[in-house]
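Exercise (ungraded).
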Amino acid sequence: MLLNIKNLHVSIDGKEIIKGLNLGVNSGEVHAIMGPNGTGKSTLAAAITGRDGYEITEGEIWFKGKNIVELSAEERANEGIFLSFQYPVEIPGVSMTNFMRTAVNARREYHKQPPMPAGEFLKMMEEKKNLVEIHAKLTNRSVNEGFSGGEKKKNEIFQMAMLEPTLAILDETDSGLDIDALKVVAKGVNQLRSKDNAFVIITHYQRLLDHITPDFVHVLYDGKIVKTGGKNLALELEERGYEWIKDHQLA
Amino acid sequence: MSNYETQQLQALDELLINQFEEKKHLVTAYDIPKVTALREKHFKDFLTTGFPDSSHEKWRFSEIDGMLEQQYVHALEPQKTEKNVEELFRCEVHNFNTEIISLLNGWFHDSESGLHTTTDGIIVGSFRAGMKAYPALFEKYYGELAHSENNSFVSINTALVQDGVFIYVPDGVKASKTLQIIKLIDRNENNFVQNRNLIILGRNSHLSLMHCDDSINHFTSLVNTVTEIFVAENANFELYKLQNLNDQSGLVNSTFIKQEANSNIKTNTLTFNCGMIRNNIEVALDGKGAHADVLGLYLMDKQQHVDNQIRILHNQPHCTSNELFKGILDDEATAVFNGYIYVARDAQKTNAYQNNNNILLKPTATIDTMPFLEIYADDVKCSHGATIGQLDMEAMFYLRSRGISAANARLLLMYAFAADIIDNISIEPLRIRIDDMVKKRLRGELSVCEKCVLHCGSPEKEYNFEIDMSKL
């Protein structure tokens, strides 16, 4: 199993948000995690990627046979975990080229490989830009600075393509996207899908799943996965609303 | 040597007062009457005020007291050196062809005559030689800008100064090369050094000047420099000040600039290292349509201190000024920014902008930032802002989530913060070099004890691709 989360409890400032969550993801699979606002979807993403301030009070996160709970954010990234941010951060003064080159070479260093030659790197940038239909010259642009909402999300997928993760977590990638940008993002993700990698797609709505077909759909409610099904579960949720789950839970 | 031993028994102010009274023949040896008259006047002022201390409002946050408590020697004549001075001053900046003006321990170090004309037609020389060859220019300009209000360092400088740099750019002359003043302090004693620079730009002329203050050993020095710069109509002047002295040393730099109509100036004060720095910069916009960019970057750590006192005087209408100072402070470093903008009653259509941004890397670092606007005209646009913050934690996580180590993410963000000051350096080879120096400084690798500031002991790199941040 690529990712195996066992009985995960996560607290922020002493308040428990994830309350005993179990999730198993195999290579080649796409999992969607759906649920109403405030049930812990983004907290789960933060806990897997090692964000500071998210305290794992109990449980384990196994990735490629390693419990990664004690690893730093950068170590987890270099092990092959990628997070596409719900709100990508603007970093004025850091150019996209330098950012990506630093990241690509950090990963290579982690795996005891020599830095990528400049020519090869630039070629790779051009290739991956086309994948997500980024036409602008990124070289001299600061990371996400002045990017539109759609461009920011495309840029996340671009970075994912550059870093070639084995597990990609897409946190609300569809939020703030118009339908054209959504299609581009979905197309990029579909092209990157392979039998060796896996995707966890966190979303509130069905619409991204129209374009990226999940193998499993999980419903997260009050810090736990309360229902798991196939892709039709997403359609059912869209139709019946989350109230259905809430009622189901209370019953 | 025995002379220095007796000097060392005295406090600095006592030493200087005695020198003025007892060795006046040495001090005034090269003077024209105006210079001598100003010495007398400023000496009297200094006798009344003495050196400033932290009870003085404008020196409240400065750390000058500690510098003044130490004992120094102050030479009234240049000393012989056994070192190969040519080698010391050799500038190795890649693709950066400058005309070098060297001062060793405060004394002009150049040709016998101390004065020459560059191929572009710029007259460059020592303060002394300039005074002798161009008495009319000194009569007209010397001492006309520098004033000692709130700054008695100007008084003691005017009273006792003997050497420095004289630059005269005649009307219409455009310098093709950057002039570079390299001032090295290299004496195995605590050394008090004074310099006086007089820079005159004629109409439609152009000059870019780099002013490097360096120490090459670990002895304490206190350098007190006063620079007067006159920029005539339509002239264009750029000044890059590089400050890289050792942790014991102090630097008091007072720069006065007067601009005539439609002139443009840019000053960029880059502070990399020094125990205590006080930069007084005063720009008088004295002609319609003049523009001033006054920029600065300070990167301080340990117990270093930098104090930037900037005064922009909008004396005439339709002038614009843009002031931006950025600083990163680590450890127990302290900094002061005092930005004063004055808009005279008739200076309508003034557009003045001021900003000071700071990052404190540790809770023990301190910044005191004080904007101060005094506006007497009613049709003006003046804005100011000051920020103090830490590194953006969201951005930190973003970088780390891409596999970049916490240490490198910090460096990237600090570098990014400094970038808009560096990007303003219009001389390409210099910009690349400063960029490299900033990275080295942020990594803690910048040396202060090897030759001039721009050597920093590293071999030149090829820059055929973008700067390789992965090595940060």
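Further reading is listed at the end of the chapter. For now, observe: Chain A touches chain B through 36 residues (CB under 8 Å). The domain at 3-250 of chain A is CATH 3.40.50.300 (Rossmann fold).
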